[in-house]
Amino acid sequence: GNREKHKTMSDKGSVPVKYLKKRKAPKEEHKPFIAAIRNRIRKNRANKVRVTRPEQFIQNNRKKETAKKKYFRTLDQKKVTLSKSVSKTLLFVIVVKSVDSLDPYSLRELKNLGLAGLYSASFVLLDNETLKSLLCLESYVAYGSPSLKNVRDLIYKRGYIMDTSGRTLLNNNQIIEDKFKQLDIICMEDLVHEIHTLGPNFNEITKKFLLTFTLTPPNGKKDKEFSVADRSGNQGNGINSIIEMMN
Question: pTM of the predicted model, to two decimals?
Fold first, then answer.
C-alpha cells in the first residue's frame, strides 16, 4: 500500500519522492541567519568595485569634450536668433526621437523643459531661455502652438498629478479646488483656461502641479521612433495634427 502511494506521488511530479522527503523548510531559528547572508550578498554586489580601463577613461573624456564643443557650437550658430527678444507664446513640446545618446548639456536643457524620454511632452512658455533649450534640442523635439481643443483634450485625457497615493489621473474638480481655491481656479475648465491664456499661475500649474505628459507612440509601435521624425523642430500650428495622432 505505501509503495503504491509513493509511486503515485512520484508520477504526479517531476521530482522523485525520496528527494522530496529529504527537503525541509528552514527552521524558525535559522531564518534570521539566512536573511543576514542574503543581505550580505546583496550589499557585496552593490559595493563591488568597477575598474575602468585607462583607454575607456580616455574615450569617455573625449566624448564629453566633443559633446561640450557641439553644444556651444550650436549656441554660437543660433546666437543671432537668441539675441532677438521673443513674444511670450504657449508651446507644446514633444520628444519625437530617442534621447539616449544625448550629451549631458543637452539633457540639462531637456530637463529645463520638463521633459524626460521618448514621447514625453509638456506645455512651456516661450521666452528667451526656453528658446535656447529648444534650439539645442531641435532635432529631437517637435513643438508648436496647441489649439484650445487640444489643450483641453490633453488635460482631460492625460493630465496626471502626484499626490500621497502616487501618480493620479486628474479627473476630479475637488482636487483642483483644494489646491487652487485661493487663486479662483476651482475646476478643470479653469485649469484649461489658465494654461491656454498663459495666466499668472501658468508656471505653478505646469511645473509644480501637472506631471509630464506621456503620449501614445504613433501607430502603436513602441519600439520604433516617431514615424514622421523629419517633422522635428518648429511645427507652428502643425503640432495639433501630431497631438491628435498621439493623444
Answer: 0.69
CB 158 within 8 A of CB 150: no
For the segment 206-226, what is each residue's pLDDT rounded down to a tens digit? 998 999 999 988 766 554 455
Is residue 107 helix, strand or coil? Answer: helix
- Integer CA distances (angstroms), 42 to 45, 46, 48, 50, 110, in order: 5, 6, 10, 16, 34
User: For residue 194, how many other CB atoms are within 10 A of its CB?
Assistant: 20
Report how far residue 128's alpha carbon sits from residue 85's, in angstroms, rounded to the nearest whole number.
7
- Rounded to whole angstroms, how far apart are CA atoms 115 and 56? 30
Query: Residues 141, 108, 86, CA angle at the centre, nearest 5°?
Result: 60
Exposure string (b/e) for 84-118, b if CB count within 10 Å is 16 or more? eeeeeebbbbbbbbebeebbebbeebbeebbbbeb
Query: What's phi and psi for 232, nearest 5 deg?
Result: -65, 160
Determine the 3-state secondary structure of 144 from DSSP: strand
